[in-house]
Write a structure and sequence with these properties.
The protein folds into two domains: 3-242, 3-Layer(aba) Sandwich (Aspartate Aminotransferase, domain 2), CATH 3.40.640; 246-379, Aspartate Aminotransferase, domain 1 (Alpha-Beta Complex), CATH 3.90.1150. 37% of the residues lie in helices and 15% in strands. The chain has 14 helices and twelve strands. The strands form two sheets. Strands 1-7-6-5-4-2-3 form a seven-stranded mixed β-sheet, sandwiched between helices. It has a five-stranded mixed β-sheet with strand order 8-9-12-11-10. The chain is globular and about 75 Å long. Bound molecules: pyridoxal-5'-phosphate. Pyridoxal-5'-phosphate binds at residues 73-75, 98, 100-101, 141, 145, 170, 172-173, 192, 194-195, 204, 206.
Amino acid sequence: MKFGTKAIHAGIEPDPSTGAIMTPIFQTSTYVQSEPGVHKGYAYARSQNPTRTVLEKNLAALENGAMAICYGSGLAAMDAVLRLLNPGDEVISTNDIYGGSYRIMNQVFAKYGIKFHFVGMDSIEKIDAVANDNTKMIWVETPTNPMLNIIDIKMVSEYAQTKGIQVCVDNTFASPYLQNPIDLGADIVIHSATKYLGGHSDVVHGAVIAKEIDIGEKLKFIQNAVGAVPGPQDCFLILRGIKTLHVRVQRACENARKISEYLMTNDKVNKVYYPGLESHPNHEVAKRQMKDFGGMVSFDLKEDNLDTAKKMLSGTHLFALAESLGGVESLIGNPASMTHGSVPREERLKVGMTDSLIRLSVGIEDIEDLIQDLDKALAKL
Ligand SMILES: *Cc1c(COP(=O)(O)O)cnc(C)c1O
């Protein structure tokens, strides 16, 4: 099956009891047993819920993995993956990762004796320089946030395989429609399903997809033991969102490409960061490993200061000022004063994250209206 057909059909059958074409929301905590221990595969809803099972089968198919497990948020999914590690283990992570991912590594798991190294992953040398016998996992996030660098998943996975290190890819920014890390050699994929998978900014949710059953079973054990499960209604919303994932992401990519081209021509704009532009330093890698270049665009301003950035944020009407991404509606933000406010300024500047950097999550509105909205806001600066 091709992707769009899988998004709508994989793992999804009409409800056997009623014929309902949409997977019902099984709002139940427990299931009746005919004799002690004799049931239809469902005993207690922390361990399993039918709405969740359908979503997990669908996600495993979309990422070409053996097994998927769903969680109450993207960070709960990440928490489960990091619990595969033991005290003394070391992790090498992409340096410009999602702020919450940095926080759970450095402020939660570090205190249990797990060591994290944060490096730029544009070359194997940088990874190899911090690898040692204790290195058990490489954590990749690509495209990165907010600079939209692209990391070569195949290159990193081939290196990791020779060393017996697991590779986990946070595939939130690309979505499974654009990129399938398991096909490129990764062992584990995580998603904040809050973003493109849900797609309508109405639910917080997460998922892990494992290439092999044995890692999947370990994660399943951890989930049942620890209890980070999503509710059935949230699973239903993600299932519904996924049915249009390919159409939404395709349109977001088309819009983002046109916006990046428009921004290149505006004289208030300094630099535009979009992997689809030939001028982007990782354009060739992006072309190889992604189906298209995504719906996220960043740019900074010639007048580089926080005040001008704030004027830009308040100047748009369609682009709403908000955190998050991946919904049908377009969003605008300024990493320096919002998501990355806690990163020291010198550190920000080192990776190109200037005061005036603006990040757009491009939605699926009509492109003429989106460009007009940005054009008016830029003209007022
Ligand atoms: C949002 C996000 C997360 C965290 O997901 P939540 O659903 O907010 O817990 C992790 N990684 C990336 C890349 C994200 O954008």
